Amino acid sequence: SKATVSVLYWVFFNSHLFLKRMSRALACVLLSLGTAVAQTCPLTFVGNVKQFVVEQENGKNRRTVPAVERAMTAKQFYDYRSDSSHTGFEKARVSNMFLFRDLNNPTHLSFFWTHGIDHGSQPSAAIDALVTGIPEGVSIAERDDHANEWDWTTSTTLGNINHNKGASAPYSIGARWRFRGNTDGGAIDGLPTNLNWELKVQTRFNYGIDTWQFHFGDGSVAQDMDPSEPVYLRPVVTSVDLGVAPYPQVAGAETFCTLVESITQEQLTYTFKWGDETPDTVVTKAAGSLACAEHDFCGPVSATCGGTVPRNVRVLVASAGCTAVDKILADEEVDDVSCTTADAKVIVGGAAVPANDVNGEMEFSNSEAVLTMIPENMREMQVHTPAGPVPKGTPMKLSCCGTEVCEFILSHYHCPPCS
Would you tell me how many other CB atoms lie within 10 Å of the CB of residue 247? Predict the structure, then answer.
């Protein structure tokens, strides 16, 4: 009947309208949920901030930089297979050296040294090497390839090995690498990040290697080093370890890096703010990739160096779909453990040498263990007295804040902080 048809039409029309409205409402709910997720999706910083100094004699090739940093273990990054390392830095006729830090375990620090590449373009090569100043608790993490090539007892013509039973830190490790068509090298693990130490790295490239490079951060930039001189590596140790570096007080370039993970894995924009009234540096990286930026710092605040004390280095990280996050990388309220030569004095023959006559760097450490670290990890320091320059090898004492803490032979040295 017509009445029945009308009823069916009404049911169909209103059901269709109801479903249409419900689908629109559901779409709005899903869109709202999607927007809410996008606005609150977590951007998570991984690891903390740690800086290291690399240099050669008399401050040559000096840089303050982060280690090579990844969210993986040292063994994973070395990627040893086919008798070779596969870090991504390998090149024919190039020796690569770097500190490595696992950002998932940021107090875990390693030293890597690899040469050549897993490819037929690498000619026959021979390298002798010596690393001294190795502190307590360090172990060999990787050998490429044999124990007699990279070991605590490997003989070398570059200096003495110090890792016999009963010997005390600092230790040394020798290397004699001979290879062709692949890499050779090794790594040590367990270097402390909160104590002062200094590695001295010496090498002799007999043949097959032409270039020596130090990598840092994301590895995209490397510092060429002079193979005829040792390389010195040491951490920047702060008085309180807050995972933040001290704000640079000396004019010069420093590199800062950070890594952010996101569940959406999209491109992230890192904005580095330097705190000295200079323009920001903007870097775009995929989530989970290390972002680095270098900046020329101008030193303390002055007429030619901007900013308001306390200054800091910050990074702001944002994406199209996530709430921005920020982090302090360096702060002027975080002190490194260094002092002026007015606080630390060299004593010769019972008399303190005037601070102006000490040409060297004196650094504090929170660990008395550093006092045993002679002579391998210390550079030569010139000291003058009224009678003239102090001859090399002259026994002297170091006084920190009025307290004699050690005797030493003329050299670079560390002492405890003033209270």
Answer: 26
Which residues neighbour 382 within 8 Å (Cβ) at sequence distance 6 or greater? Answer: 358, 359, 360, 389
Tell me which residue of 104, 112, 105, 130 sits closest to 68, measured CA to CA.
112
Residues 6+ apart with CB under 8 A from 12: none
Pairwise CA distance, residues 137 & 193, whole Å: 12
Cis before 144 (ω within 30): no
261, 317 Cβ separation under 8 angstroms: no
For every residue of 251-299, DSSP letters joined together read: SEEEEEEEEEEETT--EEEEEEE-SSSSPPEEEEEETTSEEEEEEEE--
CA 67 – CA 343 distance, rounded (Å): 30
Q: How far apart are CA 212 and CA 94, in angstroms?
A: 6
CB 204 within 8 Å of CB 156: no
DSSP letter for each residue of 172-220 = EEEEEEEESSSEEEEEEEEE-SSS---EEEEEEEEES--EEEEE-BTSS
d(CA 294, CA 15) in angstroms, rounded, equals 64
pLDDT at 243: 87
**DSSP 8-state secondary structure symbol assigned to residue 299:** -
Neighbour-count burial for 309-321, b at 16+ CB within 10 Å, e otherwise: eebbbbbebbbee
Nearest Cα neighbor of 282 from 253, 312, 317, 323 is: 317
Q: Amino acid letter at 256?
A: F
- CA torsion, ordered 314, 89, 287, 329, to nearest 10 deg: -10
CA distance 101 to 126: 28
Q: Which two tokens stand for residue 270?
A: 């890192």
Q: What is the enclosing helix (H) or strand (E) of 31?
A: helix 2-40
| Amino acid type, 79 | D
Q: Length of the chain, please?
A: 419
Spatial separation of the C-alpha atoms in residues 368 and 408, rounded to whole Å: 15
> Does residue 310 have a cis bond before it (omega within 30 degrees)?
yes
Q: How far apart are CA 77 and CA 79, in angstroms?
A: 5
User: Tokens 């779909």 correspond to what residue?
Assistant: 321
Classified as helix, coil or strand, 37 is helix
Residue stretches of the chain with pLDDT short of 70: 1-40, 159-167, 337-419
Two tokens, residue 376: 């391998």
What would the pLDDT profile of 365-415 be if each residue is shown by its tens digit? 322 222 222 222 333 344 445 555 555 455 555 554 444 444 443 333 344
